[in-house]
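Async update (no meeting this week)

Hi team, since we skipped the sync, here's where things stand on the single-chain job. The sequence we agreed to prioritize is pasted below, unchanged from the tracker. I ran it this morning and attached the output directly underneath so nobody has to dig for it. Comments welcome in thread, and please keep replies under the output.
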Amino acid sequence: MSSHLRSSGPATSPSTAPKRWAGRFSESPDARLEEFNASVTFDITLVREDIRGSIAHVRMLGRQGIIGADEAKTIEDGLWRVLDEVEVGTFQLTIADEDVHTGVERRLYELVGPVTGKLHTARSRNDQVGTDLRFWMRRALVEIGNGLTSHAHALIDVAKAHPEVVMPGYTHLQRAQPVLLAHHLLAYVEMTLRDIDRVMEAYKRADVLVLGSAALAGTTYPIDREFVAEDLGFSRISANSLDAVSDRDYVLDTLFACSLIAVHFSRFSEELILWASGEFRFITLSDAFSTGSSIMPQKKNADVAELGRGKTGRIFGDLIGLLTVVKGLPLSYNKDLQEDKEGVFDAVHTVLQLLDVFPPMIRTTTFNAERMAEAAIADFTLATDAADLLAKRGIPFREAHEVIGSLVGRCVAEGKTFADLTDEEWAAIHPVFAEEKPPLDALASIAARDVPGGTAPNRVRDAIATAEAEIALWEARLATLREQFDVLFSRPGSTA
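Output:
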């Protein structure tokens, strides 16, 4: 339960605090309805954004003369006091508050009195909650973006620390061709850069002010939506009030971005689990990021990676859950949309946990270079190099492929490797090999793949420099956005 939530309280019990919407009702809500209907147990997460959104709204009401300037000032000062209580942890809600918005208004009323009733002029819960969630989402996406840049840095740092470590590259989980460990790690950097791009696309679609749409049709008051957008740091305002209050595409965008981040962590986790096994022995995870067995004293388990793989399922569930909720909703707002928050709060929290634990785990992992090098040339991973040598001497590649395939079959039958073959045996395979033998070590094979995007050492160095430059651009943009949010929550006249 949130630290801002308590189970009951006389100031907000159903018998003493009629609902804001209770005017046309002759009965108080049944206690079971009240509990089933309440969102306060989870939308307390939005409390800071709700208060700041109300501050911008009441500033606009006073500026437009919709309420008195002195009234607007009194309400704004009261809202800052409520925010102060949130920051120090003394602000509390109860189930009877129904939602965070009502809880904030209830506390504001306790502080400044009946003038609180003017705060809700020219807005609805529908556009208010949409604004709160978009506001929160932007901040969350910036935090995810920062976490992704840290993850990318960790991968690059390990790649740079192991510039000549070779390993087998795989297809179908069979050894295929040797690659640099750094090249393998950079594949995950590329995934991470795409993740950052997706996160910032989700940010772009969340960055729309919907306040002013009211319940569904706009409002009759002379509001200034552009002023509110600027006050809250939104880049634009919504174009259609019906769509604005019912749109949850930006939540789905965020959930999809989180799902793909989880996919990439799951794939990486699977490899770490395999590499740490006795069958591979490519890596040793640090004790600080491993666990043991309650019955087998020798065990060292890659539980962080296993959890990283496993948490993908819950994030997928959050995405599928909301897709199912919105698939059949008519315009505009429906109470079903209350189900938009718990899933995205969970997905964001889970992704931030992954981004917190994986970078230090990666940095403290030990790579068994000798074992990886041994595996890099096992199972005839240099066969393609031999076929390529024949093709470069004018032999049609299909013919070269058949020649080397037959050679591999013979070696397997005789229990030999390419390194075991004598000069005479190579010459007997094809006359070309009497003059030049194919590469028989991993680094020679790797160096030959000197094309953009290839695993040759110079290409990997270039790729690292390019990735670092791209990450730096994202970091600068994310830092600017984070500073803007810090300013938004600074009280006028504050030096913060």
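Quick observations from my side:
Residues 10-21+29-121 form a domain with the Fumarase C; Chain B, domain 1 fold (CATH 1.10.275.10).
The radius of gyration is 30 Å.
Reply here if anything looks off.
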